[in-house]
Amino acid sequence: STPKVYLAGDSTMARGGGGAQTQGWGEYLAYSLQGITVVNDAIAGRSARSYYNESRFTAIAGVVTTGDYVIIEFGHNDGGSLAVDNGRSDCVGSGSETCTTAAGLIVQTYVTYLTNAAKAIIANGANVIISSPTPNDICESGTCTYSPSRFTGYCKIVVQNAGPKASFVDHGQYVANEFAKLGADVVNGYYPIDHTHTSPAGANVVAAQFVKGVLCANDSFATYVKNTTASIDGTC
User: Considering 194, 195, 220, 231, which one is annotated as catalytic?
Assistant: First the structure.
């Protein structure tokens, strides 16, 4: 049967994006692929923690089969303080640190949530790609600048923890590189409602840069990519 690639993420990836005039990049991934079916399970407003606690990773682990892929990309909703718990913020840390909320809830780190998710998915035969979060509008000030968030570093640790069937794509960096090349006038036009959620045209560029990252990394997922590396704008 045709393998599937499941997408786990937030509104920047999800169908419908962040609302009117926006779209998530996951909706455009299929146009670069052949021989594999995209299942976009990204949900707006989710973090590694809330996606995990809602058993959404468990649901994906329950349906994957050998040869499937799961792309996991979180970060936009994972920051913030646990002093007033919104159900989304993770405990800060790169390992197995825990935090306790005022209500007595034990909260794990981004690394723990995604490591546990990746291991459960891999145990059922799938490959996992841990993707760094897309940047907010890097050209908002009129000058395009990007510094990776701590979540990019956390993603690399998750891949180390999860083992050889996990891989890393630095999606955020590839998007930032392309946006810097396109310039502020074009890029600011990709953000119709705020500095996080892209227009359909912006989401299409963001999707292409994920594919670029896959090709440049020589990831096993590249088997299903119909573009050549050179056909997608940017450099490795």
Answer: 194
Across 75-188, the runs of DSSP E, i.e. the strands, are 98-100, 106-108, 127-131, 166-169
Sign of CA dihedral 108, 109, 113, 119: negative
Any catalytic annotation for residue 219? no
Could you tell me if 107 and 49 are in contact, meaning their C-beta atoms sit under 8 angstroms apart? yes
Q: For 67, list phi and psi in degrees, rounded to 5.
A: 95, -10
pLDDT tens track for 68-93: 999 999 999 999 999 999 999 999 99
Query: Whole-angstrom Cα distance, residue 105 to residue 128?
Result: 28
Three-class SS state of 39: strand
- End-to-end Cα, the chain, rounded Å: 33
Contact call for residues 24 and 14 (beta carbons, < 8 A): yes
From the candidates 41, 76, 89, 197, give the one annotated as an active-site residue.
Answer: 197
Catalytic residue selected from 11, 32, 47, 89: 11
- Encoding tokens for residue 97? 């640190």
| Gap between the Cα atoms of 96 and 138, Å rounded | 31
Provide the whole-model pTM.
0.98
Verify whether residue 197 is a known catalytic residue: yes
Question: Is 13 in contact with 4 (CB distance < 8 Å)?
Answer: no
**Catalytic annotation present for 194:** yes
User: With the C-alpha atoms ordered 218, 223, 224, 226, is the resulting torsion angle positive or negative?
Assistant: positive
141/53 Cα distance (integer angstroms): 36
